[in-house]
Amino acid sequence: MNKIFKTLDQQIEILKSRNLIINDEESTKDILLRENYFFINGYRHMFLDSERSRNFLEGTTFEELYATFLFDRDVRNIMFKHLLIVENNFKSIISYQLSKKYGFKEKDYLDPKNFTQDSLKSRHVHDILNKMRRQIRVNGRQHTATLHYLSNYGYIPMWILVKVLSFGIIAELYDILKYEDQMTIADLYHLDPDTLSTYLHLLANFRNLCAHEDILYDHRTQKEIPDNKYHYLLDIEMKDDHYIYGKNDLFAVVIMLKELLTEQEFNEFISELGYEIDLLDGKINVIPTNIILNCIGFPNNWRDINKV
Length: 308
What we know:
Radius of gyration: 23 Å
Number of strands: 2
Largest sheet: 2 strands, antiparallel
């Protein structure tokens, strides 16, 4: 069946027909116009009276549904801010390490000999280096910093180039480094290269979700982070020998940020998250806040990660 256009009044009637309480129709219509019915309705699952039902729990208000929408937006903005810190830090580190070892001009740091010589990865090396060269061609004269270097020196050093490379390309760049270069960088984070590679790709995925204002709270990635000490120390619940939180959800992002941010940065991150969760707790009455937290992958004792 095709989805057809619905007026604001029709959208209100649909919500009412599903047992949602609308206390102020004019305010609700204004919110639906500005925020989009589809996106707000994307948060309804937690408030339904059963898994197969389309009806809301008795007593659910539009204000509660909208509060959850705003909560996801605020969490997304907090995540995005701190993911950008990780992205910037990693770009700085990888550009420093490669420039120091291989040179700071494109012809030096983009030389295929500087990367893994594994024959199985030769095509990948070729593709990533071509992506980087393409960014130099396309963006080189569109950004102030890159234009400055091209105009005055005729080349773009890597510490400037990384500014126009996506986090995804940077993650792929790390994958094609020689193992000793991967180790040098991973050691700075006290991680092994495989774990750091997994972190980079997952964080790039979440970063793009945040940048495009996608629904974040129930997002799950296909790849999971490895079991680590934080799963154990927080005594996260297991099912069939598998941790049910902190593997491919938002709490996995918290764990990754714990290992990649400075202590001060992480403390600020947890404080900001805690504020939004406490705020939500005061606005939701029909379901316990823990149901929402578990939905986004947070164990009930999630704040204890700041203590372990």
